[in-house]
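Okay, is this right?
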Amino acid sequence: MTAVVRPSRLSPGARVAVVAPSGPVVEERLQAGLDLLRGWDLDPVVAPHVLDRHGELGYLAGSDADRAADLQRAWCDPAVDAVLCARGGYGAQRMVDLLDWDAMRAAGPKVFVGFSDVTTLHQAFATRLGLVTLYGPAAAGADFVKNAVAQEQLRATLFAPETVRTLTSRGTTLVPGRARGVTLGGCLSLLATDLGTRHARTGARDGLLLIEDVGEQPYRIDRMLTHLRRSGWLDGVRGIVLGSWAGCGPYDALRAVLADRLGGLGVPVAEEFGFGHGEGAATMPFGVTAELDTEAGTLTLDEPALR
């Protein structure tokens, strides 16, 4: 596994497109997110179908074709410097195969930000475009519009990425040690359900795997991790970094599952790095070589996520 292309950092006045590849967007939160972006001296533009709702499937932000067209149009627009996802939810797996990856590759690299269901797109951007992406808060998500910590780390990563090269754990160590590798991962349930699809990674070999999830009971976390283990997807992973597990049951019970399923891999496992669905929603780059040190509770990037 090798490091991939780093997009350019943003500068004041940069145009950022907001798209909705997955679930429906709350207009009030969208407006609050746009106001925040304008406060950073960015020029946010909203894709045409961001506020759509699928007529029969209310958990989708419009039709698969429209959601894909919004993302592709934004990515291929030379005036757009970054594409931010409005929210997660569900739906990226339904539209990812509709994207013209040749056209998007020809458009060149730019910043891509999103989390949760957007894990599917992070995998595709890595495998199809060889691009560093940012697993960070959604532009119209409560984790962004109501949380100053999430806002500040995303802003720093976008404008001054050299200031966030060391990411720090808030908790303890599950398995001690140090490891180096290229960061990858996302929402555990999406990694598990993406397994075997044509845009997904074939495995985590030589990587530092960053995972989190929301609303999944411990036995379901067990099932997903067991599925990844049995498939061989975790073979050769160098280390594991755990984020938030909001709504995943009592943490003691979940921690026992994580220790049981990950502790036997023979690699360092660090807890509570604050990315994902929990409070704080730290921005984590995928595709950057980094060093995990569980004793120090740090994940240190070899180079900034953006150029």
